[in-house]
Amino acid sequence: MKFGSVPHPEAVDFTLPPDPEATTRFLSQLPAREGAPNFYLACPAWNDKGFVGKIFPKGTRQKDFLQHYARHFNAIELNSTYYNLRLENLQKWKGETPAHFRFCPKISREISHFRQLNGAEEVTRRFCDAVAHFEEQLGPVWALLPQSFAPDRMGVLEQYLKTFPKGILCSVELRHEDWYRNHSAPHEVFDLMETHGAVSLITDVAGRRDVLHLRLTSPTVIIRFVGNRLRPTDFTRIDAWVERLKHWFDQGLETVYFFLHQPDETLNADIGAYLVKRLDEVCGLKVPGPRLIPKAEEQPDLFSGF
Question: What band does 288 get if pLDDT is binned at 50, 70 and 90?
């Protein structure tokens, strides 16, 4: 994520802003949740070779990466569908993962970038028909809209959400700065998403603190967390998110998809392990997470004392 890099990250204020009034209102209207909330932890890819020896056993073959990945994470931010979508791949991936695992496909670039949602009803229907092959393992689909998609395209976005196929959760990431400036656009666009049941996507990244809007629009939320090579601020930021999530869970939020990013994606295993530990400590929420393989020098000597 290009805007994840800043010249002086130590100068960035990583404090989470308070919940906006609309989020407080939304949470107050949620029905009481039955049972524990759902928490899905995802990386942007499962084929990172750096996972071998870190969370995958040494010698793991690339064709087995997904099966091993699914033992440590219970979701995937599926970016490959942005470029290409082949049914045989979807069916293969589904067959290699357990029933509780979720795929979160990125909407194709033909829809988000080439057409910019305009006149995209038919190609969106085909996309959704394809990803529906994940069946119960399908999480939200999400569109990353180009930087040029500004508030003057509000009508296009409204038409797109209005005609989006029912039964599939949709999320949209907006990057044009005017969506977040101090005028009516932020209120209108999130009200629009709430009206159509679109999932709010919140990005926590060093270079664009304005996109950290904390506006909830459905009982499900996606958080994209962009870290900074496991510097201390990565861990304090995770601590802050766990506290905020506890508040949201206590108010009835049902489901969180937490997408991890690092400049070196192998480090997602480290920060992911810390995150699930804190979720257990603060929220009493036990979720699957990365189990790091101890380094050789840290392994106990089974023959010491003989």
Answer: confident
Q: Residues 6 or more apart from 210 whose CB is under 8 A from it?
A: 177, 180, 181
CB atoms within 10 A of CB 54: 18
User: pLDDT > 90: what percent of the chain?
Assistant: 90
| Domain residue spans of the chain | 13-293
Q: What's the CATH superfamily of 13-293?
A: Protein of unknown function UPF0759 (3.20.20.410)
Sign, CA torsion 16/18/22/26? positive
What are the Cα distances from residue 34, in Å, to 30, 69, 168, 248, 250?
Answer: 12, 29, 22, 15, 12
Six-digit token pair at 253?
A: 């939020």
Question: What is the distance between the alpha carbons of residues 148 and 200, in angstroms, rounded to a whole number?
Answer: 20
Q: How far is CA 115 from CA 121, 149, 212, 223, in A?
A: 10, 11, 26, 26
Residue of 226, 185, 221 whose CA lies nearest to 12: 226
First and final C-alpha spacing in the chain = 52
Q: Map tokens 């038919």 to a residue.
A: 122
pLDDT average, residue stretch 192-220: 96
Q: Is the pLDDT of residue 98 over 50?
A: yes
Q: What is the DSSP letter of 142?
A: E
Q: Per the confidence metrics, is the pTM higher than 0.85? A: yes
Angle between helix axes 268-283 and 232-250 (nearest 10 degrees) is 40
**What's the pLDDT tens digit per position in 33-63?**
999 999 999 999 999 999 999 999 999 999 9
Q: What is the pLDDT of residues 122-153, one digit of tens each?
A: 999 999 999 999 999 999 999 999 999 999 99
Contact criterion met (CB below 8 Å) for 243 and 27 = no
